[in-house]
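Exercise (ungraded).
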Amino acid sequence: MARRATAIKPVRLADVAKAAGVSHGTASNVFSHPEIVREEVRERVKAAADALGYAGPDPKGRLLRAGKVNAIGVATAEPLSYFFDDPFARVVMSGISEICDATGAGLSLVSAINGEHLAWNIQSALVDGFIVFCVEGNWQPVYLTRERKLPFVVLDFGYDEGALSAIGIDNKAGARLAADHLLAFGHRRFGVLALNFDEGSSGPMTALRAEGATYSGTRDRLYGYLETLAEAGIDAAGVPIYETGNDVPTVHASLDYMFSLPEPPTALLAMSDRIAMIAIDWLKERGMSVPGDVSIVGFDGVPEAAWCKPPLTTIAQPMREMGRRAAHAILDPGQAERRQEMPIELVVRESAGPVSAR
Amino acid sequence: MARRATAIKPVRLADVAKAAGVSHGTASNVFSHPEIVREEVRERVKAAADALGYAGPDPKGRLLRAGKVNAIGVATAEPLSYFFDDPFARVVMSGISEICDATGAGLSLVSAINGEHLAWNIQSALVDGFIVFCVEGNWQPVYLTRERKLPFVVLDFGYDEGALSAIGIDNKAGARLAADHLLAFGHRRFGVLALNFDEGSSGPMTALRAEGATYSGTRDRLYGYLETLAEAGIDAAGVPIYETGNDVPTVHASLDYMFSLPEPPTALLAMSDRIAMIAIDWLKERGMSVPGDVSIVGFDGVPEAAWCKPPLTTIAQPMREMGRRAAHAILDPGQAERRQEMPIELVVRESAGPVSAR
DNA sequence: AAAAAATTTTGGATCGATTCAAATCCTCAT
DNA sequence: ATGAGGATTTGAATCGATCCAAAATTTTTT
């Protein structure tokens, strides 16, 4: 019956010290600085530890004294599975992982859709800093994270307020690249498949309404497209724009709309690879060939874009490098610049080509 | 110059208490049990906190007292990116995430290829328990994890020693399902594309050598195949078996070997979907149709298997459910059974069909 | 107005380790 | 044998909070 006691309380370093007949200071050294303890004592303490079933110094205790957790937190207001499912997130996480592997830092995922949970999780995360994924213009995790007064980087700009450090791309320049590419093939009739400008909205829209967009990334991309077209002498006001939700139903709706117009587009500017890929499927199902009948350029440079048929021409963000930079920024803050604008790149594959002879 | 001091040391709860003129006990309550503090005092403390720039109770401190971290650790001896790249891992992680989301638990990834780093990371991970991915029969993380004396579950059996809790499948039964399916189509000439039996080995092999296999999962699958074929009256000893490394070069080598045999197989038993998919590409490139000329059944039930062409018939493990179970086992240990054998399932798609008329 | 009950606040103990200055123990040369 | 000097060991202080029994205060009841 006395045996029950052993299971009741975990063994502490102090217990080991007592059992071995040394001070707790020495016992501590046996585990953390074994070289300064005399061998005989070291063995004795280790033996005592074994006998008692000591699990080694509890990191909880060590942590308080050490101050540093040695882990990076990655926060976002999505379900945790976002990190394993979303193609963009996955590549960025790979980049972060690379740095963590190299430096031996841990990786803690902090996330929740529920606002209260999210707040609690961010407040109580044991990390040295945060990398915040701002999905769909939801700034809540940014606010919460900032409260912790730990180093943090926001992925994606669009949150211009204050001088918080962020890593992002020049959305407008990316959009220009896409439009230029299509223009070079001789296209004159365009359609824009946009991402959300505001929380949850969708449907046909005008450049005017984009003025007040909540999501500045979306707005910048649109302006990039439109300005480039206008400079090529195209009536930008006449270009159909449809706000989608980056999901199948709204993208389908947008295509139904565009292709029932009197003059349907021959070139589609998609604000995400996802949209572009959904559009390609829709077009193929309706017997239109890509790029034979309709050309399309995506945005993001997600890996899947290379496998789809036809392989998608797109504007690639250096996602992996962004992850690396973000991790570095947390690991040695101060070193990193406040705002890092990453280069985007036009990746030419097969979804865009010359306007078809008619 | 006096201002410098503010940045030098982070504000502690005790500082706030002093500034607000209350005891540290009360200050603590303001943050953790606000309802038991008189409103006027509460406001005063909060004001003091704001004025000092207090970031809220430091979780490091709270942790020690609370004892529970409220986070699950997931460990494996792979680079961290394994969690974001590997299809099997990703689905399992999704399952784990689901439970974490539901219970508000955090998720810490603990991993390293370097043995020393791995040991340190596991020893110092701030988690309430571990889910261990045993990849390729590398038990090191199991040993390390066990030392922590925290709840832990191993994914994948094959580690029979001791009564540690594990979640896995009946590999042999799964293999039988695959062989039966092919047999039912009338196939009599088989080839086995195996996974590693031992660390790093590869090449043609015999059932005999499998006896001493390090990786029992691989061995069990092989026995499942062979026994089923033997029961159907096929000379199991004559079935070519090739040990691959689950990568392109070794799978290609295995196919070169099989299809240069005097009687090449019409049915391939692949021990992983990855192998099967690589094989399909190889066959198609050589003008053989699947399943017209050669039928193939995979193993695992990875999502990609559904998208490939032709869609792969495979033995599916309930990966997501395994993740869920594992998370539950950590979150309330004791509840969970020691050893959970999950059902496997034959998922019939299009990569296996009747033996071709010749 | 006093007593009883309820509400707040206090401050010491605790969580489990690490750190470091001071104390002690050895070894070796003189 | 003695003292110097190096190698070990000790134990109090600390990290930043939470908990809780007891004290203080306020409110309610008689």
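Further reading is listed at the end of the chapter. For now, observe: The first strand of chain B starts at residue 71 and ends at 76. Residues 171-319+341-347 of chain B form a domain with the Rossmann fold fold (CATH 3.40.50.2300).
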